Amino acid sequence: MRYSRLTWEHFSNASSAGVLTGTDVARAAAGSAADGTWVQFDIRAKRRGFAAALIIEARFQAFGCPHTIAVADWLAGRAAGRSAELRLPEPVGALQQLFGMPVEKLGRLFVLEDAWVGAVQALLKKQENA
Amino acid sequence: MTMPVYLDSAATTPTDPRVAAVMTRILRSADEYGNPASSTHEYGDRASELVDAARERVAASVGATTADVVWTSGATEANNLAIFGVTAYYANQGRHIITARTEHKAVIDPCWELERRGWRVTWLIPGPDGIVAADQVEAALEDDTILVSLMQVNNEIGVIQDTRAIAAVCAQHDGARLHVDAAQSIGKVPVDFGASGADLMSLSAHKAYGPKGVGALLVSQRRGVRLEARQFGGGQERGLRSGTLAPHQLAGMATAFTLASQELPKEAQRIGALRRRLWDGLAALGGVLRNGTEQGTVPQLLNVSFEDVEGEALLASVSELIAVSSGSACTSSSNEPSYVLRALGRSDRLAESSLRFGLGRFTHEADIDQAITAVGNAVKRLRKISGQCATAA
């Protein structure tokens, strides 16, 4: 299979792969390795009063195809400085086009979305309870 | 661009320069380009002599007689001709055939088509080692079984079937003919059609350093096997396979088969050592499962599954350095994990994370070391990204 340049860059480098530690880190995962795709995001953010929290850094772990790893790396790598919102920075359809993902892989983007939104939810809950 | 190390010899092999030289000489010849069927002039006679010589050499290299050889475009056509040809000819004697789940698609698809047409097909499931036991065949035989079709060397894991034992079982049955797909056999195991007890055998040139687009079906004349033609036209090949023969292709196949036969013992030893080196290097990674065994498989093939690694990501990671096949669903046209590995009991996940290494005549130690390094780096990196394996660095 041929991959787009963006996919290949993020798959082969994956500089945002890893985990974050600390009590201020929120984590969520989605999918399963048994089903072929599993993604986990760690997010660290700081509170901003009534405004949405500001993401300081994010990391991911993933068991999946090159597209899955590339999109996870892209999301985690661009997260710093963004508001923690309960949605992906780009809609699933836009990500599919951006990375040139075959349509049959769309489900993997939903796994990524679930993991990302789950991590933000966990972050918001953590900050509510703090 | 630097080409990756070629380790996919079960898919095809590079044409041996000695084969290419023979073919080129014929293609450039000023007096050997005739139609072998043209018996009215010298050009045709010379082309016909090339065909006859090729037939003799191919027959000699596989223990057949020249009368057994029916030229085809390759093993797929040979398998189709055998399966459809025999079942059509003997249809009034029975409508049951036996094959295995782990056969090549060129056997499975014709059998599916026969099922669609109302034939009964028994699909044998081999043991975890990939072996179809002769007593499995014996138990599956029915009164109206007219064909058993099994491969000699499996194209995914390299397991060698005991086709002689299966032939002996078929010989006890009144009417079950044995077709052996030997596309992967030439140059890997000794092939003796006459002594094998098989009634039909499919051959391919390009799996044995010959050209693509040529093969043969051996049809035992001594055993009186008959089949109906599937292709009509000029009546070539005793009417079984019409179409103008290509002398340069046939001479190429004959040269390739002769070389394969001559070099088999030496190559088996050398390539066997390379495979052991490859397996030792990969096994050291941990979480590596061998699909097939050391014994009972051809040395040219090594098929392994990698735990905690996604198949497509693994193949993508290594593809710039080594050319191998994968059991990954996303890399094959069938869009499903290797049915052979699944039939052998591997999970979908492990079938998808498998790599098939095909070693060959032009594989060297440095190629193996490059493969070990490439796969090792990829597996460690992907396990680290997934965070799922304790052995990840």
Structure summary:
The complex is a heterodimer of chains A (130) and B (393). Chain A is of the alpha+beta class.
Question: How would you describe this structure to a colleague?
Answer:
The complex is a heterodimer of chains A (130) and B (393). Chain A has a single domain, classed as Sufe protein. Chain: A (Alpha-Beta Complex). Chain A is 41% helix and 25% strand. Chain A contains four helices and three strands, in the order H-E-E-E-H-H-H. In chain A, strands 1-2-3 form a three-stranded antiparallel β-sheet. The longest helix of chain A has 24 residues, at 106-129. In chain A, 41% of the residues are buried. The mean pLDDT of chain A is 93. Chain B is of the alpha/beta class. Chain B has two domains: 5-11 and 264-386, Aspartate Aminotransferase, domain 1 (Alpha-Beta Complex), CATH 3.90.1150; 67-246, 3-Layer(aba) Sandwich (Aspartate Aminotransferase, domain 2). In chain B, 40% of the residues lie in helices and 14% in strands. Chain B has a seven-stranded mixed β-sheet, with helices on both faces. The longest helix of chain B is centred in the last third of the chain and has 37 residues, at 247-283. Residues 389-393 of chain B have low confidence and may be disordered. At the A-B interface, strand 3 of A face helix 9 and helix 12 of B.
